[in-house]
Design brief:
mainly beta, 12 strands, 8% helix
């Protein structure tokens, strides 16, 4: 019941956003809510929340702020917990070419990270801009500080390559595939690969269902006793404003 109550409160909070920003077309918000709560022989609860707030300063300058949280427990024992936030500012030179500044924070103790801080520039290019096919590629460099659960830490320059493809069946129904490669300049074996495959289907003008499968691979996890691959399969309610 506790998880259901939290889920209802989050829906109420996100649903109130249109009343605040509905008249201001420069704001866009997308919230994803996913909940699994079972009882009986096996008690399991998983709750994930993701929110992206976008703001258009003018036709060339755009900003975005993303917040994510994941919590899971089985038979009263916590078995998943992660939090992250990322802010970025994009400057569009053309409809296809852009530059960005990105800064973020991540905490995922079950993946060995007590905390990760990063900041850096990126350059991207949109190869396809619709109406059916959307494809972009982005490269950048981050200055990274990572603190691990084994009380060690390191600072390094991280190379980043990112690509995302979307196919729009209609305005509100789409398939997407993203892939991100992170390269540790101090240790070439400590690279990471992140992937998300998703299918979004509209229920109404504001509500959609999103089925997604995420893969997070660390070639050299710290501590090295951890598994090198984490996966998340979820179905989320998406609220668009």
């Amino acid at each position: 019941m506790r998880a259901v109550t939290v889920f209802i409160i989050l829906i109420a909070v996100f649903s109130s956003i249109p009343a605040v920003y509905g008249e201001e077309k420069k704001w866009e918000d997308e919230a994803e809510l996913s909940l699994v709560d079972t009882g009986g022989n096996t008690e399991m609860m998983s709750l994930s929340v993701n929110n992206v707030l976008r703001y258009t300063f003018d036709e060339n300058l755009k900003g975005a702020w993303e917040l994510s949280a994941l919590y899971g427990e089985s038979d009263g024992v916590r078995n998943a917990e992660s939090y992250s936030t990322e802010a970025r500012l994009d400057y569009l030179f053309t409809d296809q070419l852009y530059a960005a500044g990105i800064a973020g924070w991540l905490k995922d103790e079950f993946a060995g990270l007590e905390a990760k801080y990063y900041i850096g520039p990126a350059v991207g290019y949109r190869l396809f801009t619709g109406p059916k096919h959307f494809l972009l590629g982005e490269v950048g460099l981050n200055y990274v500080t990572e603190k691990y659960i084994d009380n060690t830490d390191e600072q390094f320059i991280e190379g980043r390559a990112f690509g995302k493809y979307e196919y729009a069946f209609s305005k509100k129904n789409k398939f997407s595939q993203s892939l991100e490669f992170l390269y540790n300049s101090d240790d070439s074996e400590a690279y990471k690969v992140n992937s998300e495959t998703a299918l979004t289907s509209a229920l109404s003008d504001y509500l959609s269902l999103k089925a997604s499968y995420e893969i997070k691979y660390a070639n050299k996890p710290i501590p090295q006793t951890l598994d090198d691959t984490d996966t998340v399969l979820s179905i989320a309610l998406v609220v668009n404003f």
